[in-house]
Design a protein that fits this description.
By secondary structure, this protein is an all-alpha fold. The protein has one domain. A two-stranded antiparallel ribbon has the order 1-2. The longest helix is centred in the first third of the chain and has 35 residues. The two termini are about 30 Å apart.
């Protein structure tokens, strides 16, 4: 049964309520997301004719799934706060300043290159949760730190750890692509076009991000802080996108984010150290370096050395790489270690906590515990770090619980008595009815929608890849390019996903600014999505279709 116009409009109402209340009325996510869930529940029961036990059951499932994100936030905060209490965070910030005193270059190194490396190693929300507090510690205003971490982390998300989002897209097409040889050829083409589209549009993401961050600063020492950083920002964009595209073309989907970022990081660090294309004037976001709460208690002479100060983040990166790359074979073994129990009555749906594979526990919590003896911390200092981390995490918990409950309810609203597809499928289907030419530009917006709702490019691809493939076939458009636009859009949507924004805001102590972040990120998300659609359109035209 297809949805009527009224049902289509109704499916959008909970999302519109969240967006409007957060961006237009300044509601915090702790108010907007519960309101969105409540409206979705009413619509699911009355319009979609879901039964109450199923609707509540899937909402509870979502609430449990929020525990994964809450643990990532807590683990990232605990590592950070323990570093602050030990004084090591001051040393880390100093090491970035030793590479470059320029705040713009520090943003590029941390939010673009280092974050992309972490995305290739782990994904699951860890990169932005690490990058934002590092930037804040270097003097970048918390709001700007969150915006930069979210926008710049969108490009590597399409490949993420071991190419999982791409694999999810391909696996969801089972039965649509006939024959193993055809599926292999389709997979190769999908990987290459995804990398190419991101390579074309993503190269300008550092530039776009800095334009947004630097707009309030006007002239700095008689010069435009944005104009003078353009050459270095473009170089930094290419330093990641060119290697990642080449790796995708020749080695497949598993390593573009990881190795592309590693190569790019080396190039950008070398360029920054040598002053290659760097501005002559030094720009600072704050007049003096900001010091994290608690790190002022450590006398200068008792600060740990640079090597040992960096050891926790080095260990985190190593653990993420070793446990995520298929080469080592640890991922499946760790994923098998889980706590599982049923949630939704009358179904086999269960919540599974993969505790050994969850970044919040391993490596974040594991490394946080190691830090105590590593830095020879007193119990009192370590206790302050735990207390502060619990306090910061609790502020985001309400929004995350209601946000994930909302998502799961929308996803499973197809289990109803009305015969309607799920609300998300209805929303995507309405976007697909725009016609052949416009659908090229609509395809990445559908990917955006999936990640905006779920917080995961992988989930977005699972939800909409078959829809994108079928629609492309009906419109006589190349299925591989349309599906690549879906994957790319899913990565872009990461910067506007509400519960991801809530999580990253929590890491810098930004309690009431989620709506402002969402509002500011809508424009770069729109620009990036339109740029991706334009790149896809050009590729289709060049193929003569």
């Amino acid at each position: 049964m297809s949805a009527t116009l009224t049902e289509t409009i109704t499916s959008f109402l909970p999302v519109l309520l969240i967006v409007v209340t957060m961006t237009g009325f300044g509601w915090s996510s702790r108010r907007a997301l519960p309101a969105g869930w409540a409206l979705a529940l009413v619509i699911a029961l009355i319009v979609w004719d879901m039964n109450l036990p199923s609707a509540l059951g899937y909402s509870v499932l979502g609430a449990f799934k929020s525990l994964d994100i809450i643990l990532i936030i807590f683990g990232a905060l605990l590592v950070l706060n323990t570093l602050k209490e030990s004084g090591a965070f001051r040393v880390i910030c100093g090491s970035f300043r030793s590479i470059s005193e320029d705040g713009r270059i520090q943003v590029i190194i941390i939010a673009w290159m280092f974050s992309a490396f972490l995305e290739g190693a782990s994904g699951f929300g860890a990169p932005a949760a690490v990058a934002a507090p590092l930037l804040a510690g270097l003097g970048v205003p918390p709001m700007s730190a969150v915006i930069a971490a979210l926008i710049m982390n969108s490009t590597p998300v399409a490949f993420a750890a071991a190419g999982i989002p791409i694999s999810a897209a391909i696996n969801s097409l089972e039965g649509l692509v006939a024959g193993s040889a055809a599926q292999a050829a389709f997979s190769i083409s999908l990987v290459r076009h995804t990398a190419l589209i991101h390579g074309i549009a993503g190269t300008f993401i550092p530039l776009l991000t800095l334009f947004i961050l630097l707009r309030p600063y006007g002239k700095h020492e008689g010069a435009s802080p944005f104009r003078s950083i353009i050459p270095f920002a473009l170089f930094s964009g290419l330093a990641y996108t060119v290697p990642s595209v080449l790796i995708a073309f020749f080695f497949g989907p598993e390593l573009p984010a990881l190795l592309g970022a590693l190569i790019g990081l080396v190039l950008v660090l070398f360029a920054a150290k040598k002053g290659f294309l760097a501005p002559r004037e030094v720009f600072s976001f704050a007049p003096a370096p900001l010091r994290g709460e608690g790190d002022g208690d450590v006398p200068l002479q008792n600060l740990p050395g640079r090597l040992i100060s960096w050891a926790p983040y080095v260990l985190i990166a190593l653990i993420l790489v070793v446990t995520r790359l298929p080469l080592f074979g640890l991922g499946p073994r760790l994923s098998a270690l889980e706590l599982r129990f049923p949630v939704v009555p009358g179904t086999s749906e269960a919540y599974s906590l993969k505790w050994a594979f969850l970044p919040g526990i391993f490596p974040f919590l594991f490394v946080a515990l190691i830090q105590i003896p590593l830095f020879r911390m007193k119990a009192r200092s370590a206790g302050r770090a735990w207390k502060q981390s619990l306090h910061q995490t609790s502020g985001a918990a309400i929004a995350l619980v209601s946000g994930l409950a909302f998502v799961q309810l929308m996803l499973h609203s197809d289990l109803n008595g009305s015969g309607l597809p799920s609300m998300i499928t209805v929303m995507a289907g309405s976007l697909s009815g725009v016609g052949r030419l416009l659908y090229i530009f609509a395809a990445p917006f559908i990917g955006d929608l999936g990640t905006f709702m779920s917080g995961s490019n992988t989930v977005s691809n699972i939800l909409f890849s078959s829809l994108q493939y079928k629609t492309a076939s009906l419109l006589s458009l190349p299925e591989d390019i349309i599906l690549a636009l879906q994957v790319v859009g899913g990565g872009i949507g990461h910067m506007i996903c509400v519960h991801v924004i809530v999580a990253v805001c929590a890491t810098v102590g930004l309690k009431e600014g989620e709506g402002v972040v969402l509002k500011k990120n809508l424009l770069p998300a729109l620009i990036y999505t339109l740029a991706a659609g334009t790149a896809g359109f050009i590729i289709i035209v060049l193929r003569g279709i």
